[in-house]
């Protein structure tokens, strides 16, 4: 697997194809998790809500735009630096290639836990794993993982994935 990831893509078309493939993979994996969610946990069905920032902007006439801005623009830019670019760059600079896979697994678990607890390891954690693999495969392309993250959060914010479930 590491050999596949380290065979970096340099052509723009191939990078775009990898982003599309990663997005489709994340959608399929998350649909699978959500299909069996009710059998795994005895709680209410998982729903994605981006209303945290509404408390900071209570008088704003368009809270959806605030949610969209933070969830789909700011989160991908900041989280990709924190969870993909920085840890993987540190591991790459260390020269210990055998630590890359455990490193992306660890950051993916932390990414999932940060979002909504243990269930999110299966949802956002899987996304973090795929985003990390895309980042490496596309020659350590920060913008590849940001675009994937933007597309994923946009799908969640607009409720597109609810149509598939």
What topology does this entry show?
Layout: H1 2-5, H2 12-40, H3 63-94, H4 100-116, H5 119-137, H6 142-158, H7 160-164
Helix pairs in contact: 2-5, 2-6, 3-4, 3-5, 3-6, 4-5, 5-6
Provide keyphrases for this structure.
single chain; 165 residues; mainly alpha; 7 helices; 75% helix; globular
Q: Judging from the principal axes of the Cα atoms, what is the shape?
A: globular
Q: In total, how many domains does the architecture comprise?
A: 1
How many alpha or pi helices? 7
Q: Characterize the main sheet.
A: none
Span between termini: 30 Å
- Number of β-strand runs: 0
Secondary structure category: mainly alpha
Proportion in helices: over 70%
Q: Mean pLDDT score, rounded?
A: 81
Write down the Rg: 16 Å
Q: Uncertain runs with pLDDT below 50, 5 residues or more?
A: 41-50
- Beta content comes to under 5%
Could you characterize the architecture of this molecule?
75% of the residues lie in helices and 0% in strands. It has 165 residues and is mainly α. The protein has one domain. The relative contact order is 0.18. About 6% of the residues have low confidence.
Quick summary:
The protein is mostly helical and 165 residues long. The protein is 75% helix and 0% strand.
């Amino acid at each position: 697997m590491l050999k596949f990831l380290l065979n970096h893509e340099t052509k723009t078309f191939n990078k775009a194809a990898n982003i599309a493939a990663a997005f489709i993979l994340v959608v399929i994996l998350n649909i699978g998790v959500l299909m069996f969610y009710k059998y795994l946990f005895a709680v209410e069905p998982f729903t994605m809500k981006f209303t945290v920032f509404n408390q900071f902007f209570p008088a704003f006439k368009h809270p959806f735009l605030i949610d969209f801005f933070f969830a789909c623009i700011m989160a991908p830019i900041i989280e990709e630096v924190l969870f993909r670019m920085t840890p993987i760059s540190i591991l790459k600079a260390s020269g210990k290639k055998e630590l890359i896979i455990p490193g992306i697994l660890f950051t993916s678990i932390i990414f999932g836990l940060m979002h909504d607890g243990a269930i999110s390891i299966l949802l956002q954690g899987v996304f973090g794993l795929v985003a990390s693999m895309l980042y490496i495969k596309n020659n350590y392309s920060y913008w590849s993982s940001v675009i994937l993250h933007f597309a994923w959060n946009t799908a969640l914010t607009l409720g597109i994935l609810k149509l598939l479930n």
